[in-house]
Inverse folding.
């Protein structure tokens, strides 16, 4: 974190020859010597370890007096993830939407009962791509100066609105990136959600409706989006997204697996827990995603600049290759953003990469750890 206003002044003088401190600017224009000098002025603390599982993972009231809903204030960040949006609106996360990895792991466990290793993997894989390793901050929405001065390009620190990681094509309630706004609630998309729930779920969103809707969304992007892409990590998050509402948006006292559509809208559009809402009883990860995938299995790939030109991508992990997912994510995604980090940046990346690998192992995957920046 920045140590004082003096540091802000030093950075402004160093980066800008005239004018005020920039609202959002990278250090990429500096030489290695200048960059090292600036980084030394930052108060850096190694990223703290993630929390462990909840001591009590029973169904408890989460829309309580300590976590009232509050409407957004100017500058607050919200993005493509309805769960994180809701947690911020109720104060389980900072209400401005600028968060640390530890805060997210705590919040998704306390508010929704995500299983600990699953929560850690999601959080650190997302943070490494979209967050700021030096300040340990990430926006749950768009890029913002509130996450601190950026590391050098090609790192972007662009928040969860970044295309093709947490956010991606075939979202149930957000439009594809190609069509413009990829993070705001989209009523047309939600009406597809409603239609398939009525046709295949008897008026509720369940595994059958989720399966058919996921197939429809794939075909819709295939036939209408020339840049449509479904490769790792988005391949994994797309199928997790399909079952997330069933696993986490149904009141914990209800074991039917049938999500009411008004409750769904409460989360997806209004970013709030329903009145008297209890989190699910017992921690869970992405149960049911295999059912959705196996009904209409696909291979990872992308359209080739025209609609309906989908081509298999052999470099992407499939859903049955979690270790390839981990390895390619680190060696391709992360290294492309941070090709040659040094000093505190390198240390922060290595610590966060260790937390990611620890979560992979804790989830039961016997993967070989990779060290892009040395041990």
């Amino acid at each position: 974190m920045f140590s004082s206003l003096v540091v802000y002044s030093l950075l402004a003088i160093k980066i800008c020859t005239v004018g005020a401190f920039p609202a959002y600017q990278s250090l990429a224009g500096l030489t290695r010597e200048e960059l090292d000098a600036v980084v030394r002025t930052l108060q850096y603390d190694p990223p703290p370890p993630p929390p462990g599982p909840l001591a009590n993972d029973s169904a408890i009231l989460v829309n309580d007096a300590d976590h009232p809903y509050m409407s957004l204030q100017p500058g607050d960040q919200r993005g493509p993830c309805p769960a994180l949006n809701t947690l911020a609106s109720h104060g389980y996360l900072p209400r401005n939407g600028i968060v640390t990895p530890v805060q997210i792991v705590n919040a998704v466990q306390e508010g929704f009962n995500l299983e600990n290793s699953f929560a850690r993997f999601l959080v650190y894989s997302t943070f490494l791509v979209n967050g700021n390793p030096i300040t340990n901050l990430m926006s749950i929405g768009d890029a913002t100066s509130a996450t601190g001065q950026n590391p050098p390009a090609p790192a972007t620190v662009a928040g969860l609105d970044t295309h093709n990681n947490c956010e991606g094509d075939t979202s149930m309630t957000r439009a594809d990136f190609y069509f413009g706004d990829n993070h705001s609630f989209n009523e047309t998309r939600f009406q597809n959600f409603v239609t398939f729930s009525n046709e295949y779920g008897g008026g509720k969103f369940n595994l059958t409706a989720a399966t058919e809707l996921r197939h429809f969304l794939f075909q819709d992007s295939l036939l209408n989006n020339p840049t449509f892409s479904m490769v790792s990590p988005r391949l994994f998050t797309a199928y997790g997204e399909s079952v997330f509402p069933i696993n986490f948006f149904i009141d914990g006292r209800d074991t039917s697996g049938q999500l009411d559509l008004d409750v769904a809208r409460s989360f997806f559009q209004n970013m709030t827990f329903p009145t008297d809402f209890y989190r699910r009883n017992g921690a869970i990860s992405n149960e049911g995603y295999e059912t959705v995938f196996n009904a209409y299995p696909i291979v990872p790939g992308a359209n080739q600049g025209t609609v309906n030109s989908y081509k298999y991508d052999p470099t992407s992990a499939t859903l049955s290759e979690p270790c390839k997912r981990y390895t390619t994510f680190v060696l391709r995604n992360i290294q492309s953003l941070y090709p040659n980090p040094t000093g505190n940046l390198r240390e922060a990346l290595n610590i966060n990469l260790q937390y990611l690998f620890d979560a992979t192992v804790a989830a039961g995957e016997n993967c070989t750890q990779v060290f892009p920046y040395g041990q």
Notes: The longest helix spans residues 343-362.
